[in-house]
């Protein structure tokens, strides 16, 4: 048995022997009416599927089991999840139509398969024999189909579609000896416009470009900055000084 089914059944087994109270009230209906829908009518509603919703949450597998009160909607959910089957297996939810029909719209009841022996399925079901949560042994004459929580989990892990292919890396070959790579790309950057060419051509191209830039942008003349001339006269030298005259 898969882990999801095993965890779900462990919670359900612990509740075997539970019986609904007066007025068809159950703790599972109480939980569903406050936790799932905020509607008091569910407190006394048929509780076979609400029990499974409760147990799934306790087991931490509600994402794969689903949480419903209306059994046809629950069966349809498994179908849309790609997890509907005609073959019983432990841990599967089994949906019944007491009239013997095979259409999901006619589903009346749901339980969980505990084991399969030949043509007999052994189940745990709530709201059976009027008031009980108990084990049952049934043939498949009233079975509409099976919902597989393990399959829901597998589909969720796989996700929609196939995994994307790894990106392809384009390798540009190294230029031949004596050549230089000046590779220009188009506006989308998708392919080169110029291939590698001889090194001498590259040098001539660079020198020519440098000459044009120098011609278009001449250097400013030396001393182009204006300097303020000193307001002081030439500094006197010792030989130019006059001796002080003594009167």
TrEMBL record:
Superkingdom per UniProt: Bacteria
UniProt domain Peptidase C51: residue ranges: 42-127
Protein name per the record: Peptidase C51 domain-containing protein
Biased composition (Basic and acidic residues): 231-247
InterPro entries: CHAP_dom (IPR007921), Papain-like_cys_pep_sf (IPR038765)
Segments for region (Disordered): 220-247
SUPFAM superfamilies: Cysteine proteinases
One Pfam family this sequence matches: CHAP
Origin organism lineage: Bacteria, Bacillati, Actinomycetota, Actinomycetes, Streptosporangiales
